[in-house]
Amino acid sequence: MAAKSSGINAEYGGRGAGDPKEWYPCTKLGRLVKDGMIKKIEEIYLFSLPIKEAEIIDFFLGSKLKDEVLKIMPVQKQTRAGQRTRFKAFVAIGDFDGHIGLGVKCSKEVATAIRGAITLAKLSVIPVRRGYWGNKIGTPHTVPCKVTGKCGSVLVRLVPAPRGTGLVSAPVPKKLLSMAGFEDCYTCATGQTATLGNFAKATFAAISATYAYLTPDMWSATVFTNSPYQEYTDYLAKPFVKQPKKEVKY
Predict the structure, then answer these.
(1) How would you label 112-141 residue by residue, b for 16+ Cβ within 10 Å and e otherwise?
(2) How far from the centroid of its chain's Cα atoms is residue 43's Cα?
(3) Which residues contact 30 (CB under 8 A, 6 or more apart)?
(4) Strand 82-94's sheet: what is its strand order?
(5) How far is CA 184 from the centre of its chain?
(6) What radius of gyration do the chain's Cα atoms show?
(7) What is the pTM of this model?
(8) What pLDDT score does 208 carry?
(9) Starting at the edge strand that comes first in sequence, how are the strands of the sheet with 154-159 ordered?
(10) Cross-strand pairs, 220
């Protein structure tokens, strides 16, 4: 059961719970992001800082992010009173320009499962490395090298393709690859690909492996700097105080 993001609010009763509230960061990283100490999301990835708040992703990529429900499936647990049915949602999220996330959530209600999966997808957003098939002309358009991802019995292999080829793939990896920003790519899949969850996770693992290879063009000397936690130690040592809301007089 797949559903597009455009009509999801009408179909499942909406994703947001009313008006968005003001964000009060709970982590040190959240404080640095909200107060403008960290300018780009790449600074977070450079130091491998764990992102524990979905609002951090919204802060940097909020307007660009698009989400899509890949599948909603009922799962059952046998109890003494009978079966207990819950709904499992698979949601992909990406900005079509180098960032992709995948979230899976199970809940009693469909709308709650989708909301939870979107939050988990934001927390799992990763940078995607793109490259060239032949000469380095124009913008990067395909995977930089052959990469593989595996989940369960499903193994997905991504192979660079020449410009203009398009995404030669099954529907599930095609959505993930396009949301990650790839224009051309060959794919090869083995195993029980009918299991959509494992198929999506294997593709996500393959995409995340694009930054796992140290190719010759990345051999230049790295200039190490202090991590944001070290650089702003004095600022983080101060207690965080919520700003009181201003009263609006009519």
Answers:
(1) bbbbbbbbbbbbbbbbbbbbbbeeeeeebb
(2) 17
(3) 23, 52, 53, 55, 56
(4) 66-79, 82-94, 99-107, 126-127
(5) 20
(6) 21
(7) 0.86
(8) 95
(9) 147-151, 154-159, 185-190, 167-168
(10) none
Mean pLDDT within 51-72: 93
Tokens for 182? 């790839």
Helical packing angle, 54-61 and 110-123, nearest 10° = 70
The whole-angstrom separation of Cα 44 and Cα 236 is 16
70-84, 115-129, 229-243: which has the minimum mean pLDDT? 229-243
Which amino acid is it at 207?
A: I
Task: Count Cβ atoms below 10 Å from residue 75 Cβ, excluding itself.
Answer: 10
The reported pLDDT for the residue numbered 11 is 46
Q: What is the pLDDT of residues 3-24, one digit of tens each?
A: 444 444 444 444 444 446 788 9
30 close to 55: Cβ distance less than 8 angstroms: yes
Half-sphere exposure in the Cβ direction for 244 (13 Å, CA): 3
What DSSP character marks residue 22? Answer: P
pLDDT classification of 243: cutoffs 50, 70, 90 = low
Single-letter amino acid, residue 39: K
What gap in Å lies between CA 185 and CA 168, rounded to an integer?
6
DSSP, collapsed to helix, strand or coil, labels residue 111 as helix
From residue 30, alpha-carbon distances to 42, 43, 127, 130, 236 in Å are 15, 13, 19, 28, 11
Candidate from 22-36, 100-114, 181-195 with smallest mean pLDDT: 22-36
At 201, the amino acid letter reads K
